[in-house]
Write a structure and sequence with these properties.
By secondary structure, this protein is α+β, with helices and mostly antiparallel strands. It contains four helices and seven strands; from the N terminus they run αβααββββββα. β6 and β7 form a beta hairpin.
Length: 151
């Protein structure tokens, strides 16, 4: 048996999720992010190479950096994942992932998506926790499936 598999089986935090949903960025958001990022990056590089003044070069550096950061964000946060297991709920996109114990979830509510979650889906599920009325909001395309797996 491979070492990484043996370690995974020995780890107490590893569990097979009861429900998994990977919600991708909407096509228009993904396409516009790529286009704007490429235009900023290529335009910034062109400004740096073709300019004679230091102010224009500085603007080119800022533009190229903003384009590269936007491209990295579109790539890293292209899918928002929700995993619901018996002990853990893992939610997040790219590097912004968090893990919550399942027994801390007091209730859930399905509603229309607001804020940045509209970039992923038309609906969201509000998870209310037992701790100081704390909430986590998850974008979803399968609200009923997510609700039934939460109990």
């Amino acid at each position: 048996m491979p070492i990484h598999l043996r370690r995974a089986l020995a780890d107490d935090d590893v569990e097979v999720p009861d429900h998994f949903e990977g919600v991708s960025l909407k096509g228009t958001v993904r396409l516009s992010g790529w286009l704007v990022g490429l235009i900023l990056a290529v335009g910034g590089i062109a400004l740096m190479v073709l300019s004679a003044g230091t102010l224009i070069e500085a603007l080119g550096v800022v533009s190229a950096a903003a384009g590269v950061i936007l491209l990295a964000a579109v790539i890293r946060c292209r899918r928002y994942e929700t995993q619901i297991g018996r002990r853990w709920i893992t939610i997040g996109a790219g590097p912004f992932t968090r893990r919550i114990r399942s027994d801390l979830v007091a209730g859930h509510e399905l509603r229309a998506a607001t804020g940045w979650r509209r970039l992923y889906a038309d609906h969201e599920v509000v998870l209310t926790l037992n701790i100081e009325d704390h909430q986590h909001i998850v974008p979803t395309r399968d609200g009923e499936g997510l609700g039934t797996s939460l109990g």
